[in-house]
Amino acid sequence: MSRRPGEPDLCPKERAHGPSSQPRRGRDMTDRHGMLLSSDIVGAAGTGGTAPTVHAPPPQDVRRAADLLRLLVSLAALALTVLVAVATRDFARRAQQGLLTAATALPPDLRDALLGTVQAVAMLAPLAALTVLVVRRRFDAVSRVLPAAALGAADGWTLTRLALAESRPELWPEVLVGRGGLVHAGWPSAVYLAACASAVVAAGPWLARPWRRALWALTTGCAALGALAASLVPLDAFGALVVGGTAGSAVLLMAGGPPDRPPAQAVADALVACGIPLATLRELPADRQLPGEGVLYGAQTAEGAQLTVRALAAEDRGRDLFHRLARRVLLRHPADPGEQTPLGAAEHELLMLVFAARTGARVADPVIAYPVTGGGAVVVTVGTGARPLSALPDEELTDTLLGEAWTAVARIQEHRLAHRALRPEHILVAPDGGPRLTAFARAQLNAPPETLGSDLAELLATTAVRVGPARATACALAGLGPERLASALPYLQPLALLGPARREVARYDQARAREATTSTRRRTLRPGGRPNLMHDLAEEVRGACEVPAAKPAPLARFTWKSVLGLAGAFLVLHLVLPQLANAPAALRALRDANWWWLLAVVPVTFVSQAFSTCLQLGSIPGRLPFRATYQVQFASSFLNRITPGNVGGMALNLRYLQKTGIETGAATASVGLQSLAGAVSNVVVATVFFAAAGQRHGGVHLDLPVGKYTLPAIVLVLAAGGLLGLTPPGRRFLREKVWPFLRAAGTTLTGIAADPAKLALGVVGMFGLPVIQIVGLALSLHALGGDLPFVQLGAAYMAARLLANAAPVPGGLGALEAGLIAGLTALGVPAGPATSAVLVYRLLTFWLNVPLGAAALGFVQRRGYV
Asked: Of 129, 349, 372, 170, whose CA–CA distance to 271 is shortest?
């Protein structure tokens, strides 16, 4: 490809692949403004000269997303191990006995040789590794390894003594009799292996990849050979490795580790090696650095030319690990770049910059991509003293500047080049006032329409946060034209935005919601009235382009319909089908039932939702309309039928309150207050009925072993408090997340407590809900010929309700029916009427909610309430 006059020399391909490549002499590097780095200067840089000056702060410990992912995976494996050992104890014992029997079939000399090898490795490898760390004066690594080993040993002892002891084969200790290696046949134990595995994980950031793999191979090899030599129970060996991963990852998350990126001096050496006559290299301040996008340096050559250097490392790929996982799970076409080495990512960005420049768009002038010792890489562009668009003050953010930025975006869109991170911080404004696109690390050639549309939606949303929807749309229209701008309409939705842009839009909407709430005198809230920037932008774009409303593009992998379909299938297969076995008995009972009394049960469903509505209206300081809230309560009752613990209903209520403009903290406090009020009302009503019914019967005695869980609860609270209060991420989480949430929740509770009408409404809702259910059961029992005093019936219902609340099934399905039938028959009701009354009662109060709630859910979604 020939170079046009005035275009920068992008450095020869052979010069961009390694430090061994020598810079070509007689070849100039020229930028768009005519800056010329002569071959003499390049040659001098390659042959030696004055050492460049490097300015960079000392490296600080970091916490990696990979450690958090390892911790979560290890915890899941640990939970699975405990579940297998406890829930399937007999099966685990038999399976491990079979493995040990197979191991003991090996020749005794072979087993002794294997055991001796394991003991030698287990004894020498930790000592050698610790000695190497001390000799190399890596005391920061030692300060992580020793606590991790102690924590791993403690966790391993707890696991093997408490959770795995009952799953061991009874004959296991006997297989060790007469066997031996260097020491006792039972060493290394699972506790020792757990400590070694924890130490290996904690030392990982200070070790090169070959050493990490070698130590992990030795640790897992010792566990496997120990199980093969019958000195370890297989489940204990696996549990030791899992505990090691958990403890080591926890220590790294609490204390941090060294940054996995090349130091500034290595970056300077790479620039000199690739032929750049470097004079100074300075790390840019923290406000110019972007997480996950490498470290930015400003460089100056011996001739005074300015360069911008982006140093990439494997750590940058791991910073957005959970974001990429979430996109792969939630989106149909995440279109994230595949796994790339730092050098591959640097070369990709350089190529995208070249292609973007060929389209006619103004972009950062590329210079070179080059590897750095230690596995990193650098991308060098010409520096012009430019500032990010996001850093400009409002008075400098003119319509002309934004229009020129959109013109550059139109150029790359015409050639189907997607930027995939198109935000103001990736648009540089040169001293001459012209914008330049940069940061093409995620760019994609031949991009599909959904990726191009998401680019437009992201830049439109992030600029609207600064200048407002109307002005942002007008500038985009000037730079893109109506046809291309209208193509963004289907993608003006949160799923089209990357993580930083989505958070920025959410903060903007929250600020507008707070402003709208404080600016109104009357606390009247409108369902679906929460400020929504994406909706406002869609309206502005539709009006500016004079096009009809566009249906949102199907970006989500999972929708409400698909999730509800899966939940409904689970409900039918595991919960509903067994209930159908009782259908013939219920139908026979209906033949002799009093239909007028049965018809009186039907309104119970509607009255119950009215009491739920009163409870919600009384748990929020603002004024919500009764009708819309009533419809949402019907929809949440449907979700409660297919989700355990009323999780679906609580999530829907939270979403409803957020959409009305209530802050997340206040909305969460309201939903939590509703759950707490429901629990308190159940306890109070149950106590009243138990006390009244106990005058004729023996009473109900509840044994709540509170002391059994006191000490573990205190330990968990202290551990969580230590993590939050003693670590910088914990303190930042408290400052940025917990305290604002608590303030909003406190304001909510104070507002409710100061309004007697709200308190009265909440009390009516919380106590009316269980009482109306008892009334429905009494009407059903009377319709089918049963007779029982209301007090005793209430006691039976509340006892069954308390038991059913502990069952991990939606609405206590199955558990409540069994408890009611048992309670009624125990109080003297014949089995036939009791069973029929309970089945009919559940049919009219539980199953009737399914079609009504499904219809209500669709209605509130169409109205924009949730």
From this structure: 372
For strands 427-429 and 435-437, give the pairing: antiparallel
How far, in Å, are 595, 610, 762 from residue 613 at the CA level? 29, 5, 9
Question: Would you say 298 and 414 are in contact if contact means Cβ atoms under 8 Å apart?
Answer: no
102/200 same-domain check = yes
| Whether residues 502 and 606 fall in one domain | no
* Short-list 804, 865, 203, CA closest to 525: 865
> How deeply is 261 buried, as exposed, middle or buried, from its count of CB atoms within 10 A (0-12, 13-18, 19+)?
buried
Looking up residue 511, the CATH number of its domain turns out to be 1.10.510
- pTM for the whole thing? 0.68
Name which of 265-279, 719-733, 739-753 the model is least confident about.
Answer: 719-733
> Scanning the structure block, which residue is given the tokens 């904690």?
202
Are 641 and 784 part of one and the same domain?
A: yes
DSSP conformation class of 420 = S
| Within a domain: 1 | no
Q: CB 782: neighbour CB atoms within 10 A?
A: 20
Answer yes or no: do 294 and 251 share one domain.
no
Average pLDDT, the chain: 78
For the cut 90, the answer to whether the pLDDT of residue 832 exceeds it is no
Q: What residues does 380 pair with on adjacent strands? A: 309, 368
Instruction: Let me know whether 73 and 47 are in one domain.
Output: no
Residues 839 and 730 in one domain: yes
Is residue 852 located within the same domain as residue 776?
yes
One DSSP character per residue, 77-133 reads HHHHHHHHHHHTHHHHHHHHHHHHHHHHTS-HHHHHHHHHHHHHHHHHHHHHHHHHH
572 pLDDT above the threshold of 70: no
Please tell me the distance from the alpha carbon of residue 670 to that of residue 399, in angstroms, as a whole number. 43
Kindly calculate the radius of gyration of the chain based on its CA atoms and give it in whole angstroms: 34
The structural domain count of the chain equals 4
Which two structure tokens, joined as six digits, stand for 778?
């009494």
**Peptide bond connecting 188 to the previous residue in cis, omega within 30 degrees of 0:** yes
Which tokens hold the place of 89? 């104890």
Tell me the C-alpha distance between 53 and 282, whole Å. 8
Tallying the residues shown for the chain, one arrives at 866
Among the listed residues 501, 394, 380, 469, the one whose alpha carbon sits nearest the alpha carbon of residue 37: 380
The reply to whether 716 and 793 lie within a common domain is yes
